[in-house]
């Protein structure tokens, strides 16, 4: 609720508390820990603190890939989030790696006609426009 209202510091306190509890009770590599890390990454992203967001989001991706494999559909949100962070930092090469991987993952798991594919295509297209790669 705090996050949706833009009260990021209040939301951050609860997300940090949830992370500590989940790590202690479930272990550092549990999927719910990845969820907490993703939430904290979202807080920092919302505050435009991209470097801090990236750390949380990279760790969440690592946990998901370790637990589920790199081709699992739940990995997609982490790829999208990281692609957005890299894009906003102007690191287009890293953004491209994550966004193209997101596109391949969606293509393999959902198919190109799935509505969720529009977001992947939009993000990747925006990145190419910023690089003036019109081909």
Keywords:
135 residues, mainly alpha, 6 helices, 74% helix, 0% strand
What do you see in this structure?
With 135 residues, the chain is an all-alpha fold. It is 74% helix and 0% strand. The chain has six helices and no strands. It has helices at 8-26, 31-46, 50-68, 75-88, 92-109, 117-130. α1 runs antiparallel to α2, α2 runs antiparallel to α3 (50-68) and α4 packs antiparallel against α5. The longest helix is centred in the N-terminal third of the chain and has 19 residues, at 8-26. The chain is globular. The mean pLDDT is 91.
Brief write-up:
The chain is an all-alpha fold and 135 residues long.
Question: Topology of this protein?
Answer:
Layout: H1 8-26, H2 31-46, H3 50-68, H4 75-88, H5 92-109, H6 117-130
Determine the fraction of residues in helical runs and give it as a percent range.
Answer: over 70%
Counting helices, strands and paired strands, the structural category is mainly alpha
In total, how many beta strands?
Answer: 0
* CA-atom Rg in angstroms: 15 Å
């Amino acid at each position: 609720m705090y996050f949706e209202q833009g009260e990021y510091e209040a939301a951050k306190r609860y997300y940090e508390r949830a992370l500590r509890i989940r790590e202690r009770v479930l272990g550092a590599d549990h999927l719910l820990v990845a969820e907490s890390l993703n939430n904290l990454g979202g807080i920092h992203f919302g505050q435009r603190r991209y470097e801090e967001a990236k750390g949380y989001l990279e760790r969440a991706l690592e946990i998901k890939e370790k637990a589920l494999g790199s081709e699992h559909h739940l990995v997609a949100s982490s790829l999208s989030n990281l692609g957005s962070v890299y894009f906003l930092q102007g690191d287009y090469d890293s953004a491209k790696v994550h966004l193209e991987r997101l596109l391949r993952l969606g293509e393999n798991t959902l198919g190109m006609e799935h509505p969720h594919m529009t977001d992947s295509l939009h993000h990747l297209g925006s990145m190419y426009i910023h690089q003036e790669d019109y081909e």
